[in-house]
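pinned: reference chain
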Amino acid sequence: MKKLFIILTVVSAFACKSKKNIPDVSSIQIEVKTERFEKDFFLMDSTHIAASLDTLNEKYPSFLRDYLYNILGALPQPDSVVRYVGLFKKDYQNVYDASQKKIVSFDIYKKQIETGFRFLKYYFPAYKTPAAIITFIGPLDGTANAITASGVAIGLQSYLGKDFPAYQTEYIRDVYPDYKSRRFEPEYIPVNCMRGIVDDMYPYKGTGRPLIEQMVETGKRLYVLDALLPETPDSLKTGYTEKQLEGCFSNEKNIWSFFVENNLLYETESNLIGVYVNDGPNTPELGPASPGFIGQFIGWQIIKKWMEKNKSVSLTELMKKDPKDLFEESKYKAN
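pinned: its structure tokens
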């Protein structure tokens, strides 16, 4: 394969990209409550776990079951649950304490999520907006965000800051390398929450398709996420650093040329194209300064190009559109 080594450069012109034509959703009414499950969980009487779980069940009749069996992974036998919960509560007390110090006020993120819900109701009125935002503490190597029957569940153990000591252990560094753990900051909470909703509405079905179709499919999702969180920095939504994102914009033509010249657009072999549509520290062929998952950037640009020509198309219609057709109709040419 021909390789093109691109050093992604910083161009200040892209440091702040303004958003235009953002709908006014302030009048849209939503009903969502915040439930701080982790506080009630860690306030349990450790000497009376069974009775405390009964009390928790009265307050969180649906979520407690999800938490115990799907998040904690406890076995569904009473004695086993009590023993498991007691050990987890003891082992994770420091993680809980850290979460209360790191995220002093959850209201900041709640307001951003609520705004995202208003845009969700504006663009996708048929989707049932979650009734609650539920915060919890789960295993460090477990679920960070989930859409449950009770609402959007947010695992605060995944937002304690990239330098949190527990993230530096050998095991966690194997599970979450630096390029992932650097995103373990509270400002990613609204982004991950809304991304989870997009995936809930439209489960990903691009696996096995040609690279260009996978890139366009991920681009569609990023375009929708951008619409739901228009005031959130693009670096948070892409997961790139600001320098990586600026470098992508300044090298868009070179990145596109790399895919074209190496005949990758219609490649389906996962071991050849996986690096472009999956998370990673960088894109090796494009240089160490490049981001991983660079395919979503190109897909995003293709979608923006297509939407410029089809302004009347709703986001619902966009998400139903076949990625192959979107690419061909976009007549995309990198800037």
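why pinned: Residues 10-16 have pLDDT under 50 and may be disordered. The chain is about 50% helix and 5% strand.
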